[in-house]
Amino acid sequence: MIAALKRLGDHVLGRGEAAITVPIFDGALKPNQLLEEAEVVAQIEGANDLASDGKRLLVADGMRIVALAGNGDGTERVRFDRTVTALCALPDGGVAVALDGVEVRVEGGTSAGGHWTGAAGIPFHAVNAIACAPDGALVVTDGSQRYDTERWAHDLMDRGATGRVVRLDRGTGQGQELARRLEYAFGVCPAGADIVVSESWRHRLLAIAPDGRRRVVLDRLPVYPSRVVAAAGGGFWLTAFAARTQLVEFVLRETTFRRRMMKEIAPEHWIAPRLRSGESYLEPMQGAHLRTMGVLKPWAPPRSYGLVIRLSAEGLPRYSLHSRVDGINHGVVAATEVGDFLYLLAKGPGRVLRLPLAALEKEARA
Amino acid sequence: MREAVLRLRYRFWPDHLLGEILSKRWTETAIPVIVLLLVAIAFSQAIPGFLSPNSLADTARQAAEIGFVVLGMALVIVVGGIDLSVGSMFALTDFCALFCLDVLNLPVPAVVAITVAFGAALGAVNGFLIGYLRLRAFITTLITLIIYRSAYDLLLFDYSNTIAAAFPDDALWDFMGGGGVFGIPSVALLYAAVAIFGHIFMTRLRPGWHITAIGGSRRSAYNSGIAVRGTIARCYAASGALTAVGALFFAARLGTVGGDVGVGLEVTVLTAAVLGGISLGGGRGSVTRALVGTLIVLLITNGLTTLSVKGGVNRMVLAGILLVAATIDIRWLKNRTRIIAKVYVSPTYHDMPALPGARIGEGTRFAQNDRLKDVTLIGLGRIEAPEDVILDRHDNLYAGSRHGDIIRFFPPDYEKMEVYAHIGGQPLGMAFDRNDNLYVCIGGMGLYRITPDRKVEKATDETNRSFSSVNDDSRLRLADDLDITDDGRIFFSEATVRYEMHEWPVDGLEARGNGRIICYDPATNTTRTVLRGLKFPNGICVSRNGQSILFAETWGCCVKRYWFDGPKKGQVEMVMDNLPGFPDNINLSSDGNYWLAMVGMRSPALDLAWRMPGFRRRMAKRVPLDEWLFPNINTGCVIKFSETGEVLDTYWDLAGVNHPMITSMREHRGHLYLGGIMNNRIGRLKLEGADPGFVQYDYRWGKKP
What we know:
Chain A: GO terms for molecular function: hydrolase activity. Chain A: Belongs to the strictosidine synthase family. The complex is a heterodimer of chains A (366) and B (705). Chain A is mainly beta. Chain A has a single domain, classed as TolB, C-terminal domain (Neuraminidase). Chain A contains five helices and 27 strands. Chain A has a four-stranded antiparallel beta sheet with strand order 1-27-26-25. In chain B, the strands form seven sheets. Chain B has a four-stranded antiparallel beta sheet, with no helix packed on it. Classes of the chains: A mainly beta (366), B alpha+beta (705).
């Protein structure tokens, strides 16, 4: 009773749970321009995911998979009849892909031809990440049961909580649900016996044990995390496709406004995070966005942002790469290491970027 | 349906008044007055004849007696102290009066003089200890309370019988005790006189201001050179003297000395003062509040006595009220500014028709282009915030800067610049009059004039105060743009009367008609408001017919015409409605049309928020200003429109590198000069087919070469 009254009071006064505080970029997340200054390898508008077969970089580009050489030249590997929304290179030389988010298929390798359109009796709807567990099984995240992968902003504004993590046994073909009712699952990576999963709308990383128990690895992030991949030398690369702002947090608590906004306004002009911004004067502008004396402040609240976080094996941030509000390399959704380089996919401008790993490690020690 | 209710609710319910009323100083007096009325009504309902003339006269007699003591107490509290010894002083001075009269048999005037002097002396003891020796007021007056009371008890033991046996027969004494003029008791008349003097003293005279200043901040008062110690000491002495006056009338009315005279009086008096709104923290109080507090306390005690409530309960009620009043006083004082800040911003319902497209391919008159790409830049990085630009017939370019200067650039290349005049506030709109005086609107200051020999003169900084406004709106807060009519009258816009210049986003959040258009007549040196309730009126331009002005309403997204002369005098007409952006300055073009700067563009999210006042109110409270949803003023354009409001041409800077925002433009000899209040540059664009001899104000005043 008292708790309920307190919650009501908090809601009216904007305190406690209803407060719209957003953590700041601090400590290991202190802003820099490393991501903004990264080398642009290729411009691929339709790119959705990256993977590495150990020698070359694989890019899911629209309906095809392209192998990208270090100089940016691409050769087509496979072509599908639908858009590839997630990509995973398998140790046996094959690839696992998600098609339009509704089907997971294996191409090449020992289990070629394996395909799944659902698990635990529920069809896939927005599969956005695939990883290969040490035992050879596929682990996938299905972001939302209501909106496809392109319409993730709808899911956020609808306060979606229909994401799930599914394990697909390549041997038996069976699917097993590891977690459900996640607030947008986007990104998965095996870590020992556990599976690390990004829960985007709750700004956290979860570790899911084989028996389904969940443990919070990292939370209260100032960003919406996306895919997570293992880094050579232990730990992970965690990408973030957008940053949180107080205005969006406020809008998320304003149900009437949100409903009317979704009904009356085109999605690209919503008050919502985007992969890129600053293209149209119809986009909402916030106070600090005001261009003063010809300068847009990099600390302004980000409508779109570029961030990659290097996590330790325990899941704690070690350092981060930024492209700030005045930059371009925003909306980072995928990272993978190939050789001596870290390759990143900035989906906002449609760029494949790369940074030398040695330089990053030096940066981390500095 | 819900939308219609919302619209009506925001049209007829004046949300903005709450914040304005609360920020007035008189609210703190108004609340006790309301309490007084409630108490009076409640008791007159419960007790028949409670407010009859007889009863009132009796009440007035007691009220005035206590009222004198409350006045003294109020004075001491305002100076930052407290006087607990008033009850004992009351008893001692009561004794003094009767002793002089009955034992010494002195004449009444001498009795009055001695008693008042004695009271002042008693108070001066407190004053000396507290003012000069800087003892704590609370403990000091607590001690004198005990000492004076003991002295009274000792004296009482010796003389009470003598005094009780005496029956003084003196007309003046009787008049003081029971007489009156036209039924108004003598004591009440004197009280009224003292109260009026006290009010003038506290609000209009130097010592009164000193007292308030010391109570507000003793250290600051000392640093400003006020004689802190002496003033405090005199306040306590005055408190003693006023207590003595009350005691004199008490003695004249009852003529007795008893053990219980003045016992517990300090609580009653303190309750009255605090209840009236005299803050225990010092520095805040007035005579009116002391009077109101006295009446409330007296009505309550008399009312309860009439209702035969036991004496103990009576006291308990008073103590309870004191506790509540003191709590409210402290909480209010602590949170006053926060509460006002929270309720002052009051967004209203602002409905805009569907947003017309302006993007390439949407096929409207406003369609974007890149014609401002090739502007040459003047003063890049050397001028900051040129809201308006103007050129004279010698091609000199003038622009304001945020450092409070008018900067002049010299032709032909506009590389050399100088400070033409320093004014001190942000210069906004500019215009030349017939005699080459440069009139400038200065944000936060008003309308100024720079003579050809560079002398800065104030034209006007206030207008007539409107009756319906709670805020004092006579002072100009944000004079924005101006133009001059043929007969020399100057019409200028004031964007908002509720906020300062740098708070313009808050006005945009409210989207209420807070602005107005004002006319200044240099011939008579008078200033009158001609139009009110405009949504951020901005650019002003006298139209070619010479009988009307065109003005832009920035948040209203429209351009209107106001007829100041001719057959339609006084009328307002719409010229351009539902613009896709926020219009700013308007100026003449050489081809017989008008230029209009668009400082920013509407966005669908803001249009929706403007229809949801509750959303914006919560946003204002919970989201910091830097993160608010703003009107988008990072993209702007210049449009050319005809006398009838038809859009003829547009100029955009698509990339938004050089001129992300444009607040003004001025055509001059075949070029267009662009200014922007957030820019660090002035743009210059060659116009195709424009009159190469066009100088706006030479053309305007018929000095065409």
